[in-house]
């Protein structure tokens, strides 16, 4: 097995043979997915980095890793600093770095199936003053070097029943057709995997922890569609479900199908469709309408069936978490558990529900200093013992047919320090400020984000990630376009106005490098709300996750009476929802955890 240094050297040799002075390696797939199948883990193969967002740039004499603030510590632990320099986005960008580091007149290669056209245009413009060129490769050079590269999944698609989806696939396609006619377009390209899964009411297992299938789709203005997927992945049940209005075509035919759309006005999403899709449409003579995929917003606003399913999934998942927290509190002080032990035990509690499909992401099981890396990924090599005096953070979620969950809790292994209680309580205060926010229609998550930070800012503290992300209905654990964040944080840019029916996380945190990390995460539903005496309908958040918040970490003197009232009400509702799903011993434990603070 070649070392990571050997892999980097082999890539440089191959690039030189092919006439390239550099190459860009993003962590994504041909669908611009956040989480990707094993076959697309090129960045991990090249560098050893196990995070979920990052890009590498390789030149003949130097190489750089680009990650955001969530991975500042992790990237340095997993990637050899002797081979790589480390750059943090958005402070530094790949385009700016190449403008300053690429050789004069250099040819920098990129895979057009792994980058957006906007990225290509911006990076090419940055190279131009140096006489450099950004050049598409015919095939990804890493694939030629990666001897044991996994094959894409051959798992079959599954039908998502209308009872859970809330709408038929035919109804969704009809709505897309209406949108196309309104836009004056003949067809829509769907390349985002969760958009396809939602629009066709199908799910898959091609991407770990995300129930989607590797596919593309073209939807016509008459509501008919073509679904491009490996034929062997489609059984008779899915064919019956899709009906005669959907033609199944081999995924390998997708590019040629795009080139056959001469004279057609084709809608394509510049954020979610890769450059190769635009290139194929251009070469075929189509007229491009660059607009956001209309499924994105429709999918984000949950219908009553999706909301009911989410609530049911949250209830059973919450009960599993309660069992886990009791087990952890009783077991961890002995000092015999490791991070992997705990992640596996939580998985087992979820599996005991009998309906768990998968985790919704790789569990962040982090003790002590590891928790100071917000997206720490425990491996066999990093697996640490959980010791007395530490704080333990676990961020995890489940995939159920009726909903997707995501929750973070922090537990002291023994008695926490006064500083830990202070920081935890400030994070809790920010969490409560978001949970209780009432806001006008048109408000974005950027306006809500400061609510979470104020208690930390008042003490000269902050955290380097967004406060909340959208979440899917048995789909992606990170779903756009809704989020709660400052525009400069990962996924930056204009933020979407929040709308009733959207689901988001509420997860402020605090991280002390080398010592501990804190994050409190629940999920919330945006609902309509008219305050007493008001004359306008406003929006508010309705918390949907109910798992006790560790009272040993709370400094009561820092809480206002309103914050205590929220906490007491939250714990009373936790007991009401989870209690009936627990055995008597666990329920008694929960009653103590949910006792009023007042």
TrEMBL record:
<dbReference type="InterPro" id="IPR033740">
    <property type="entry name" value="Pept_M24B"/>
</dbReference>
<keyword id="KW-0645">Protease</keyword>
<dbReference type="InterPro" id="IPR000587">
    <property type="entry name" value="Creatinase_N"/>
</dbReference>
<keyword id="KW-0031">Aminopeptidase</keyword>
<dbReference type="Pfam" id="PF01321">
    <property type="entry name" value="Creatinase_N"/>
</dbReference>
<dbReference type="Pfam" id="PF16188">
    <property type="entry name" value="Peptidase_M24_C"/>
</dbReference>
<feature type="domain" description="Peptidase M24 C-terminal">
    <location>
        <begin position="538"/>
        <end position="597"/>
    </location>
</feature>
<dbReference type="GO" id="GO:0070006">
    <property type="term" value="F:metalloaminopeptidase activity"/>
</dbReference>
<dbReference type="Pfam" id="PF00557">
    <property type="entry name" value="Peptidase_M24"/>
</dbReference>
<dbReference type="InterPro" id="IPR050422">
    <property type="entry name" value="X-Pro_aminopeptidase_P"/>
</dbReference>
<protein>
    <submittedName>
        <fullName>Aminopeptidase P family protein</fullName>
    </submittedName>
</protein>
<dbReference type="InterPro" id="IPR029149">
    <property type="entry name" value="Creatin/AminoP/Spt16_N"/>
</dbReference>
<dbReference type="InterPro" id="IPR000994">
    <property type="entry name" value="Pept_M24"/>
</dbReference>
<feature type="domain" description="Creatinase N-terminal">
    <location>
        <begin position="7"/>
        <end position="137"/>
    </location>
</feature>
<comment type="similarity">
    <text>Belongs to the peptidase M24B family.</text>
</comment>
<dbReference type="GO" id="GO:0005737">
    <property type="term" value="C:cytoplasm"/>
</dbReference>
<dbReference type="InterPro" id="IPR036005">
    <property type="entry name" value="Creatinase/aminopeptidase-like"/>
</dbReference>
<dbReference type="GO" id="GO:0046872">
    <property type="term" value="F:metal ion binding"/>
</dbReference>
<keyword id="KW-0479">Metal-binding</keyword>
<feature type="domain" description="Peptidase M24">
    <location>
        <begin position="310"/>
        <end position="528"/>
    </location>
</feature>
<keyword id="KW-0378">Hydrolase</keyword>
<dbReference type="InterPro" id="IPR032416">
    <property type="entry name" value="Peptidase_M24_C"/>
</dbReference>
<dbReference type="Pfam" id="PF16189">
    <property type="entry name" value="Creatinase_N_2"/>
</dbReference>
């Amino acid at each position: 097995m070649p070392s990571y240094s050997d892999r980097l050297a082999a890539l440089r040799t191959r690039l030189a043979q092919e006439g390239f002075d550099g190459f860009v390696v993003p962590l994504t797939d041909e669908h611009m997915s956040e989480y990707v199948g094993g076959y697309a883990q090129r960045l991990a193969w090249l560098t050893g980095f196990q995070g979920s967002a990052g890009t590498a740039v390789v030149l003949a004499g130097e190489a750089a890793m680009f990650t955001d603030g969530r991975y500042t510590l992790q990237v340095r632990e997993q990637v050899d600093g002797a081979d790589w320099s480390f750059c943090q986005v958005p402070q530094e960008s790949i385009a700016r770095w190449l403008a300053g580091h690429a050789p004069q007149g250099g040819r920098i290669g990129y895979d057009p199936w792994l980058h957006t056209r906007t990225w290509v245009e911006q990076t090419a413009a940055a190279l131009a003053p140096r006489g450099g060129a950004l050049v598409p490769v015919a095939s990804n050079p890493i694939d030629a070097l990666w001897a044991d590269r996994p094959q894409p999944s051959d798992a079959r698609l599954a039908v998502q029943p209308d009872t859970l989806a809330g709408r038929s696939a035919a109804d969704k396609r009809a709505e897309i057709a209406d949108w196309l006619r309104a836009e004056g377009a003949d067809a829509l390209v769907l390349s985002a995997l969760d958009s396809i899964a939602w629009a066709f009411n199908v799910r898959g297992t091609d991407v770990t922890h995300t129930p989607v299938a590797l596919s593309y789709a073209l939807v016509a203005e008459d509501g008919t569609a073509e679904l491009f997927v490996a034929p062997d992945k489609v059984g008779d049940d899915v064919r019956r479900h899709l009906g005669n209005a959907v033609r199944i075509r081999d995924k390998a035919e997708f590019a040629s199908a795009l080139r056959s759309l001469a004279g057609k006005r084709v809608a394509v999403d510049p954020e979610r469709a890769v450059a190769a899709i635009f290139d194929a449409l251009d070469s075929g003579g189509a007229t491009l309408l660059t607009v956001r995929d209309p499924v994105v917003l429709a999918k984000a606003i949950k219908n009553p069936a999706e909301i009911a399913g989410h609530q049911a999934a949250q209830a059973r998942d919450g009960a599993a978490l309660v069992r886990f927290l009791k087990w952890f509190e009783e077991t961890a002080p002995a000092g015999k558990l490791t991070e992997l032990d705990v992640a596996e035990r939580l998985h087992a509690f979820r599996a005991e529900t009998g309906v768990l499909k998968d985790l919704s992401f790789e569990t962040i099981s982090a003790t002590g200093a590891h928790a100071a890396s917000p997206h720490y990924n425990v491996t066999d090599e990093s697996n640490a013992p959980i010791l007395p005096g530490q704080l333990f953070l676990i961020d995890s979620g489940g995939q159920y047919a009726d909903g997707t969950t995501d929750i973070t809790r922090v537990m002291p292994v023994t008695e926490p320090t006064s500083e830990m209680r202070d920081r935890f309580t400030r994070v809790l205060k920010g969490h409560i400020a978001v949970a209780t926010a009432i806001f006008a229609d048109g408000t974005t998550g950027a306006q809500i984000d400061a609510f979470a930070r104020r208690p930390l800012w008042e003490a000269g503290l902050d955290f380097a990630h967004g406060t909340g992300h959208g979440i899917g209905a048995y789909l992606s654990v990170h779903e756009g376009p809704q989020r709660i964040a400052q525009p400069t944080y990962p996924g930056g840019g204009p933020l979407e106005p929040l709308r009733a029916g959207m689901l988001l996380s509420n997860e402020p945190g605090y991280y002390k490098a080398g010592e501990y990390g804190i994050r409190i995460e629940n999920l919330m539903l945006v609902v309509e709300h008219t305050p007493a005496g008001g004359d306008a309908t406003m929006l508010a958040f309705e918390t949907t996750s109910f798992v006790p918040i560790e009272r040993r970490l709370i400094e009561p003197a820092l809480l206002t009476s309103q914050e205590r009232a929220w906490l007491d009400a939250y714990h009373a509702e936790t007991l009401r929802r989870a209690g009936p799903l627990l055995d008597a011993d666990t329920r008694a434990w929960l009653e103590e955890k949910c006792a009023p603070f007042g």
